[in-house]
Amino acid sequence: MKDAFGLPQSLLVLGGTSDIALATARRLVARRTRTVWLAGRPSPALESAAAELRLLGADAHTVPFDALDPDAHEAVLGKVFAEGDVDLVLLAFGVLGDQANDEREPAAAVRVAQTNYTGAVSAGLISARALQTQGHGSLVVLSSVAGERARRSNFIYGSSKAGLDAFAQGLGDALHGTGVHVMVVRPGFVRTRMTAGLPRPPLATTPEAVATAVELGLRRRSETVWAPGLLRVAMSVLRHTPRWLFRRLPV
């Protein structure tokens, strides 16, 4: 069960090698989280992440999970919840894709959409139902400011995140009053392995800063978290910028 500050004793990470997810897991383990499940494709990186959390004092496990295999999600996640209550599910998997290549190769674009949206819908609904059955818990969904408005430079990724964001908000409304809390996290550009080599825009942040925002959001039982917070104002301006002008902006 969560403590008086809303922090979890048990954590399930969907996307167990995500830099943001692992920064969040480390932060929560430093507080009071004791059991962590890292779900992801089997790899040395996944095992290494679990080993690191064990050194920090967590009882960490790995479980095979593939966002692109929704037919297996029910069984995989069911096994985790069968082990005991899960206080927090962190949905953190996703791919950035390669915009130029994905425009030329529709199959690659579909893979981005299936990973970021379709896989998340499947895993999100299954997790939400399990949390509702146990009567408590939080589902934290890593969205992105890219979903606020499609940009020429990454509209395939951005559109998938827009769908994910809308889905998570609707799911939160559907679960209101059930004891299950859904929180949408909208980071800006985060300096991770996924964004390595890309130009750093203003307000770029780090996995550790996003993890801090997630913890604060859990304590406040927030429904939406921006990381950094200034992005809320910036994206409000961009969202209402006339389209003819938006096309001219270097975004």
TrEMBL record:
InterPro entries tied to this protein: NAD(P)-bd_dom_sf, Sc_DH/Rdtase_CS, SDR_fam
GO terms for molecular function, please? Answer: oxidoreductase activity
What keywords would UniProt list here? Oxidoreductase
Gene3D superfamilies documented for this protein: NAD(P)-binding Rossmann-like Domain (3.40.50.720)
Highest taxon of source: Bacteria
The record's annotation in PANTHER family points to: 5-KETO-D-GLUCONATE 5-REDUCTASE, DECAPRENYLPHOSPHORYL-2-KETO-BETA-D-ERYTHRO-PENTOSE REDUCTASE
Give the protein family.
Belongs to the short-chain dehydrogenases/reductases (SDR) family.
Name of this protein:
Short-chain dehydrogenase
State the organism of origin.
Answer: Streptomyces humidus
Q: What is the lineage of its organism?
A: Bacteria, Bacillati, Actinomycetota, Actinomycetes, Kitasatosporales
